[in-house]
Amino acid sequence: MNLRASCSLVLAFNLIFVRVGAEETSVYDLDRCVRTALSENPALTFAQKDVDISDARRRASGAALLTAFTLKASETTGRAADPNDPSNPAFLERSYGVQATQPLFAGGKLFASRRQAVLGSEIARLQLEKQRLDVLQAVTEAYWQTVAAERALAALRDARGKIQEDLEKAVRHELSGFRSAKIELLSTRVQNRECESAIGEQEDAAARSRSALLDAMGERRAVGLKVTSEIPAAPVEVSEAEAIRLVRDHRPEYKISEKLMESARMARRISGAALAPRVDLNGYYGRSGAAYDNDPTNPFHYQPAWNAGVSMSWAFLGSTAKVAGFHEKTSPELGQSSRTQTDSRTVSLGLGDAISADIESLQGRRDYMEEEWRFEKARRDLEEEARSALRRLRTAWSRAAAAQARVEEADQQFKETLDLLKDDRAHLGDLAGARLRSAQARSAEAEALAQHRIALAALNRAVGVADYFGK
């Protein structure tokens, strides 16, 4: 039984190690890298936090439109200073209730603030979508650069292995005293060194692209990242009219500019509201009472207490006029038993205290004019960006097609050089050069195809829809 248990334990550990090794060497396709980035990239996490904050501000702005309630309670104790009563008896006063304030009119400020907060929440969501598109673009660009570097590296390493075989043959030819063996050896050695230097450059490019891919994915640790070796090679036909339509319908920055202009309009209304009349209602209802200690004739008990009022303020000519009316009915306080119901009216004029309101109104109108200009500029820039991305896509495909043709040309030259070598009309240095040119052509083809996929991703980013064209 012990032996069987030990064998089972060893088998289990082996299975675990095999699975771990398989996970470490598993191939990451583009979709897997994108899924990782969408869940791990910190920029998206920060953008989501901004959405949560803007939603909280929107809820707070909605609460500002409602009646504001304040619960109140107070207690006062002391001694009376009455010359007719040398005992100076102690007294107690208490009250509790609720205070309510409801703005009736504020020149549109409250509703404009509410709309501005709603726009802020919508803009935060659009910023999140913009950040998502940026992350997708960064992942796609780094991924295809990594694939291209890996393909180029594989082609160059394969060529180096065969060139080194040619170099060994050239060494044997020199030792055998063949004609032109020296030039053959020197030429083959040069091709070998050029291949090694190209491999070094590609290794550096592959390391940098892998690092960029891990950063875009949001990986916090270095992982064994193996990418696919296939790069789709197919032209994508896109009309300029369709691209412009997609920009206007889906590009987050286009919608953000629209909402920023509307938000500036609300800000203009808010700044101008300081010059409009403001009317507020306020009231209080509760109970209060007061009594002297050890006074059996007037024991402590609560009585209703309430007040209601309306106030209006209006800024004009740099000053503020205020009018208020107030009605109050309270239980008598000590020493004020005759003042249980009062009516009061107040008129005041603050001289020069509204000059800043005039300045803010002018600033609000100026900011709105600037935002209108920014919207028109953003619209033109975004549409031109889409046109430019479309032109780059077409250029990238032309280069990819040319690179594919160069691969065919290099392969044909290699075949012809091989035939010439068999007829003794070429030497091993020529063959090594043909091998290197073929590998370099394949390396350039991989880079060109990758740039085509990157240009396609840039077009999708420009129109605001990920993977809309040529997934």
Q: What does this protein structure show overall?
A:
With 471 residues, this protein is an alpha+beta fold. Helices cover 63% and strands 17% of the residues. The protein contains 9 helices and 8 strands. The chain has helices at residues 2-24, 30-40, 42-63, 109-176, 181-217, 240-250, 252-273, 355-422, 428-463, and strands at residues 27-28, 68-79, 90-105, 226-227, 278-292, 303-316, 319-329, 341-350. The protein has a 6-stranded antiparallel β-sheet with strand order 2-3-5-6-7-8, with no helix packed on it. Helix 2 packs across helix 4, helix 3 (42-63) packs antiparallel against helix 4 (109-176) and helix 8 runs antiparallel to helix 9 (428-463). The longest helix has 68 residues, at 109-176. The protein is elongated and about 140 Å long. The two termini are 57 Å apart. Residues 1-24 have low confidence and may be disordered.
